[in-house]
Amino acid sequence: MAITVLGIDLGKNSCSVAGFDETGRVVLRRRLTRDGVVRLGAKLPACTMAMEACCGAHHLGHVLREQGHEVRLMSPEYVQPYVKAQKNDERDAEAIAEAATRPTMRFVELKSEAQLDAQILHRARTRLVGQRTALINQLRAVLLERGELDRRVAALTTEFVARAREDQAARRLVSIPGFGALNATALVAAIGTGETFRSGRDLAAWLGLVPRQATTGGKPRLLGITKRGNTYLRTLLIHGARAALPSLSAGQTLIGDWLRGLVGRAHKNKVVVALAGKLARIAWAVLRSGEGYAARVSQPVAA
């Protein structure tokens, strides 16, 4: 039984696995615990281990990679088209293995422990902000007197500022207009150096900031953004773009010229989202180049 690709459908307590040989034939179907998957991986020769990028995938991926296997994580929405009729855990594992063999498949990079820790802090801060809002709506007077949640949110924000100063990639991102410590540390935690993405547009698409397209009468027409990917990061980028819009649109730079032209023909909210997409592309370029952001001055129009 020579397994070249093992698809793993992760569950809370148990996992379904499906193994393909080099011809693509299913040679193994089994239901295991997470520890059982690790034991199975230790017995198998080096092969491709495929999983959806979901809860626990990064930890298990690191364990399997240490065993010598190639780990491929995929977005669940990219695996869905390969699921056959009568969906169940066994068919999901088979679909994961099949999707991992596609030459055009996009894979998710394994996150380091530091990236995972930073994401946890950002999620904790988001939850605290939500709790603060809910409690303020119910007990506004009490919270204004105590301010406990305000102090906890402020403490996490201070920690992100310190992290942004210590991390080289985050320091470069902070140089971009609309990028503060929150945006910078959240983006670094999510994508690292951005090597997973081939271009800035790929990053913008992953964040759901690229417009959907429709064809009417044979002509392409742009619709709203896809809103796919990381909702938290997309929210931060849009808030940052909204804050940076006034100063950027007033500057004598190429991006300022672009914004002034856009403001004249589109609603302000659309301009903000378009700027957020532009900032995502700039962030990718800054991460890949290893240099800080420098605005390009627009050329004066000849009289």
Strand content: 5-15%
Total DSSP helices: 12
Mean pLDDT: 87
Structural domain tally: 2
The general outline is globular
Order of helices and strands: EEEHEHEHHHHHHHEEHHH
Describe this structure in words.
The chain is α/β, with parallel strands linked by helices and 303 residues long. The protein contains twelve helices and seven strands. Helix 2 (57-66) links the parallel strand 4 (48-52) and strand 5. The protein is globular.
Helix and strand arrangement:
Layout: E1 5-9, E2 14-20, E3 26-33, H1 34-43, E4 48-52, H2 57-66, E5 70-74, H3 76-79, H4 89-100, H5 113-146, H6 148-166, H7 168-174, H8 181-191, H9 200-206, E6 211-216, E7 219-225, H10 231-250, H11 254-263, H12 268-289
Parallel strand pairs: 1-4, 4-5
Antiparallel strand pairs: 1-2, 2-3, 6-7
Helix pairs in contact: 5-6, 5-8, 6-7, 6-8, 7-8, 8-10, 9-12, 10-11, 10-12
Fill in the keyword field for this structure.
single chain, 303 residues, alpha/beta, Nucleotidyltransferase, domain 5, 2 domains, 5-stranded mixed beta sheet, 7 strands, 14% strand
